[in-house]
Fold:
Amino acid sequence: MHGARPCQQFAREHRLHRKADIQRTLQRGRKRVFPELVLYSLDNGLGHARLGLSVSRKTGNAVQRNRIKRRLREAFRVSPLRNRSLDILAIARPAGKDGGVALFVRQIEKVLG
Structure:
Protein backbone atom coordinates (compact mmCIF):
# COMPACT_ATOMS: atom_id res chain seq x y z
CA MET A 1 0.00 0.00 0.00
CA HIS A 2 1.49 3.30 -1.06
CA GLY A 3 -1.16 5.72 0.24
CA ALA A 4 -0.37 5.33 3.95
CA ARG A 5 2.94 7.25 3.88
CA PRO A 6 3.07 11.02 3.28
CA CYS A 7 4.92 12.29 0.22
CA GLN A 8 8.60 12.82 1.02
CA GLN A 9 9.90 14.16 -2.28
CA PHE A 10 11.59 17.51 -2.84
CA ALA A 11 8.51 19.34 -4.13
CA ARG A 12 8.57 22.38 -6.37
CA GLU A 13 7.17 24.62 -3.63
CA HIS A 14 10.26 23.82 -1.52
CA ARG A 15 12.68 25.06 -4.18
CA LEU A 16 14.20 28.52 -4.21
CA HIS A 17 14.60 29.18 -7.91
CA ARG A 18 13.46 32.72 -8.80
CA LYS A 19 16.37 35.10 -9.33
CA ALA A 20 14.71 37.83 -7.23
CA ASP A 21 14.25 35.44 -4.27
CA ILE A 22 17.87 34.28 -4.52
CA GLN A 23 19.17 37.87 -4.68
CA ARG A 24 17.04 38.89 -1.70
CA THR A 25 18.35 35.93 0.32
CA LEU A 26 21.95 36.78 -0.57
CA GLN A 27 21.60 40.47 0.24
CA ARG A 28 19.43 40.37 3.38
CA GLY A 29 19.93 36.85 4.67
CA ARG A 30 21.89 35.64 7.65
CA LYS A 31 25.17 34.04 6.54
CA ARG A 32 26.72 30.96 8.16
CA VAL A 33 30.06 29.67 6.87
CA PHE A 34 31.17 26.05 7.22
CA PRO A 35 34.17 24.33 5.58
CA GLU A 36 31.80 22.44 3.22
CA LEU A 37 29.07 25.07 2.71
CA VAL A 38 28.04 28.67 2.95
CA LEU A 39 24.39 28.89 4.05
CA TYR A 40 22.22 31.99 3.80
CA SER A 41 18.81 32.08 5.50
CA LEU A 42 16.01 34.64 5.40
CA ASP A 43 12.39 34.60 6.62
CA ASN A 44 9.94 34.11 3.75
CA GLY A 45 6.49 34.15 5.41
CA LEU A 46 5.26 31.13 3.44
CA GLY A 47 4.88 28.64 6.30
CA HIS A 48 7.54 26.30 4.90
CA ALA A 49 11.22 26.44 4.01
CA ARG A 50 12.61 26.67 0.49
CA LEU A 51 16.07 25.53 -0.58
CA GLY A 52 18.28 26.94 -3.31
CA LEU A 53 21.51 25.25 -4.38
CA SER A 54 24.66 26.54 -6.00
CA VAL A 55 27.46 24.10 -6.77
CA SER A 56 30.26 25.49 -8.94
CA ARG A 57 32.74 23.59 -11.05
CA LYS A 58 35.40 24.26 -8.42
CA THR A 59 33.79 21.50 -6.33
CA GLY A 60 34.52 18.82 -8.91
CA ASN A 61 33.23 17.18 -12.06
CA ALA A 62 29.54 16.76 -12.91
CA VAL A 63 29.25 13.48 -11.00
CA GLN A 64 30.62 15.04 -7.82
CA ARG A 65 28.48 18.19 -8.19
CA ASN A 66 25.31 16.15 -8.67
CA ARG A 67 26.20 13.96 -5.67
CA ILE A 68 26.55 17.09 -3.49
CA LYS A 69 23.18 18.39 -4.72
CA ARG A 70 21.46 15.06 -4.00
CA ARG A 71 22.94 14.96 -0.50
CA LEU A 72 21.89 18.56 0.21
CA ARG A 73 18.35 17.92 -1.01
CA GLU A 74 18.12 14.81 1.13
CA ALA A 75 19.47 16.65 4.19
CA PHE A 76 16.85 19.36 3.67
CA ARG A 77 14.09 16.81 3.09
CA VAL A 78 14.74 14.84 6.29
CA SER A 79 15.36 17.89 8.49
CA PRO A 80 12.58 18.16 11.09
CA LEU A 81 12.90 21.94 10.99
CA ARG A 82 12.01 22.36 7.32
CA ASN A 83 8.49 23.52 8.23
CA ARG A 84 9.87 26.89 9.32
CA SER A 85 9.27 29.93 7.09
CA LEU A 86 12.78 30.36 5.72
CA ASP A 87 14.52 30.64 2.40
CA ILE A 88 17.85 28.81 2.52
CA LEU A 89 20.55 29.22 -0.09
CA ALA A 90 23.33 26.61 0.08
CA ILE A 91 26.56 27.35 -1.75
CA ALA A 92 28.83 24.32 -1.83
CA ARG A 93 32.54 24.71 -1.30
CA PRO A 94 35.21 22.31 -2.62
CA ALA A 95 35.35 20.48 0.75
CA GLY A 96 31.63 19.69 0.31
CA LYS A 97 32.35 16.71 -1.93
CA ASP A 98 33.48 14.83 1.18
CA GLY A 99 30.37 15.73 3.20
CA GLY A 100 27.64 13.21 3.85
CA VAL A 101 23.91 13.67 4.45
CA ALA A 102 24.33 13.57 8.25
CA LEU A 103 26.87 16.41 8.15
CA PHE A 104 24.63 18.54 5.93
CA VAL A 105 21.62 17.86 8.21
CA ARG A 106 23.60 19.14 11.22
CA GLN A 107 24.66 22.26 9.33
CA ILE A 108 21.12 23.00 8.10
CA GLU A 109 19.78 22.53 11.63
CA LYS A 110 22.36 25.02 12.94
CA VAL A 111 20.94 27.57 10.52
CA LEU A 112 17.29 26.71 11.16
CA GLY A 113 17.61 26.15 14.90
